[in-house]
Write a structure and sequence with these properties.
mainly alpha; 2 helices; single chain; about 60 residues; TAT_signal; Twin-arginine translocation pathway signal protein
Length: about 60
């Protein structure tokens, strides 16, 4: 168990790196965030969904 893996990083090294890189990625994303553009409003001021096959299938499956 004391031998190092000659092929590269071990699982333990990967877990150490993953535990450090995940919070760093969240911090970088929050610092670099910009305000998103608003969706175009419909004629009455409400945001409309695009009429596609995907949205139709979702709306059909969500009906009660």
């Amino acid at each position: 168990m004391s031998e190092k893996n000659p092929e590269g990083a071990s699982r333990r090294d990967f877990l150490k790196l993953a535990s450090v890189s995940a919070p760093a990625a969240v911090a970088a994303a929050s610092l670099g965030a910009t305000q998103a553009d608003a969706a175009p409003a419909g004629p009455t001021g409400e945001v409309l969904l695009q009429d596609t096959a995907h949205t139709r299938a979702y709306l059909d499956s969500a009906r009660f």
